[in-house]
Amino acid sequence: MDFFLLNKHQSNEENVIFTSKIIYELLDSEKHIDELFEQFAIEQQMILNLNVERILYLSLTFLFSFDLIILKNNLVKRK
After folding, report:
1. What residue numbers bound the domain in which 60 lies?
2. What distance in Å separates the CA atoms of residue 31 and residue 3, rounded to the nearest whole number?
3. pLDDT of residue 14
4. Residues 5, 18: contact at Cβ < 8 Å?
C-alpha cells in the first residue's frame, strides 16, 4: 500500500504529502526555492503554473511544520 496516496480521486500533483516527499528527496544540498521548484517540475515532467506552485509552497510549509527543513532567505535545506 502506498501511504502517500491518501485519496484515490486526487492526482499526485494535488497531494501535499506526496509532493512533500518528493521535495524532501530532492533536497540533497541547500537550494533556492525557484531552483527546487524547477527541479521538481523536471522530475515530475510537468509545467509549473500557479496551482502547482501553490501545492509546492504548501508542501514546504508541511515540511517546515515538522521541522524537517530550514528556510532562510529563500534558501531551503534539510535539517
Report:
1. 13-78
2. 27
3. 72
4. yes
Residue 59 domain-assigned (yes or no):
yes
Is 50 exceeded by the pLDDT of residue 1?
no
Residue 13, class by beta-carbon neighbours within 10 Å (0-12 exposed, 13-18 middle, 19+ buried)? middle
| Domain presence at residue 6 | no
- The reply to whether 41 falls in a domain is yes
Task: List, for residues 39-53, the tens digit of each pLDDT value.
Answer: 999 999 999 999 899
Say if pTM beats, i.e. exceeds, 0.85.
no
Q: What is the CATH number of the domain that holds 32?
A: 1.10.10
Cα–Cα distance for residue pair 19/10, rounded to 1 Å:
12
Is residue 20's pLDDT more than 90?
A: yes
2 occurs within a structural domain: no
Q: Give me the number of domains the chain comprises.
A: 1
- The β-bridge relationship of strands 69-72 and 75-78 is antiparallel
